[in-house]
Amino acid sequence: MEKVKEYFKKDQFAKMSDIELEWVEPGRARAIMTIKPHHMNAAGMVQGGAIFTLADFAFAAASNSHGNVAVGINANISFVKAGRTGRLTADAREISRNPKLATYAVEVRDDAGETVALFHGMVYRKKELIVPA
Fold it and tell me: Cα–Cα distances in Å, from 53 out to 11, 13, 90, 99, 122?
């Protein structure tokens, strides 16, 4: 799994968004984002795009954890509570996987453990490896 973590260090958008991959294992991953002023919208809440980016990054790590390049082909998110301070954590888990398609669920929670957003995504699994042999 260290190869997967190394691979995702190249994700410049996650880096710019202050998102870190805490851990990854086959079919699962956790990413964290410490809320900073640039994550906030005009209403004083974490901007939905920042939450989506966090969930999408955890989704990407979980879906690529088997070693094949997996690219998102569908994703949706439901925002259920505002994020305001502290840290947000996104836990991704694999729901189903076959040679070409896989689906994932991601729950984003705040420091109190309360659900902020629910994300579901599907990937197309390519034959290409994330780290060539």
Answer: 12, 9, 10, 26, 15
